[in-house]
Design a protein that fits this description.
By secondary structure, this protein is mostly helical. It folds into two domains: about 5-180, no CATH class; about 180-230. The chain is about 75% helix and about 0% strand. It contains ten helices and no strands. It has helices at about 10-20, 20-35, 45-55, 65-95, 105-125, 130-140, 145-170, 175-180, 180-220, 225-230. The longest helix is centred in the C-terminal third of the chain and has 39 residues, at about 180-220. About 35% of the residues are buried.
Amino acid sequence: MHTLGPSFLDPEHIISSLGTAALIGVMAIVFIEVGLLFPILPGDSLLFTAGALVAHGGSHLPSIWWLSLIMVLTAYAGTQCGYWIGRTLGPRVFSRPDSKIFKQEHIDQTYAYFDKYGGRTLVIAQFIPFVRTYASVAAGVGRMRYSHFALYNGIGVVLWAGGVTWLGYGLGNITFIKKNIEVLLVLIVLVSVAPVLVEAWRARRRSRVARLATLEAADGAPATALDRDEA
């Protein structure tokens, strides 16, 4: 299995070296990667490899049904931990009056972002390495409503932890997919969010045109190049 990190983070090596403790080891790594701000651990590749090893047999992991369920519950617990870390510690750090980096306005901006895009963001973030490590913490820092977080985060976790594990179970024998699972998942995410990005660009363009029209109406003259830049 090709990994994006050092060889000692190779998921197949990790699982095989743990022996009968493989399940506990996989659970610990998944929990830490999504909940404790330690993004360099293998996530996608570990889940994929675990599913593939179950399909091939001979591992100390449980059946695919139990494995996928345990991975979903573990990842969900990890993201909940990340949320409460952000919610509990975030305001204390950002509200310090002598802080030059962490400011209350950053919390307010984060809150506004998650209030508008939070659900969609949490689902997509689960499939992007590094991003999923901080998304739950950011949601907590931004004081995202917990019921909203729990719902959309749960959807993302089921699709990611359960889906990637089953993907490994079904496609783990295909060498190309096995060696490039992280890249393929990111590409899938990019394709899935492309319509959203296009719509956001169109909305921004419409807003810019509207501002130019307002400027022209107020001045009684066509907008200048400077006006267009400012708009």
